[in-house]
Amino acid sequence: MIPLPSLPEAHALVARSDLPIPAWLFAWAASGALIVSFFALALAWRRPRLEDEHWRAIPWRVARAAVSLPVQALCGAVGVGLLAVAVYAGLRGTDAPERNLALTFFFVTVWLGFPALSVVCGDIFRPFNPWRAVGRAAGACAVELSGWAPRHLRYPERLGRWPAAVGLVAFVWLEVVYGVGGVTGAGLSPHTVAVAALVYSGYTLGMMALFGTEVWCARGEVFSVYFGMFSQLGVLEAREGTLGVRRPAAAAAHWATLPGSLAVVVASIGTTSFDGAQEGAFKGGIEALDESLLDAGLGAVAALRLTDTIFLALTLAGIAGVYLIGVWGMRSIGGGRSFAALRSGFAHTLIPIAFAYLLAHYFSLFFFQEQAQFTYLLSDPLGTGTTDLFGTAGGGIDYAALSARTIWYVQVAALIVGHVLGLTLAHDRALVYWRDYRDASRSQYWMLAVMVALTCFGLYLLSVSNA
Question: Mean pLDDT throughout 117-124?
Answer without folding.
Answer: 94
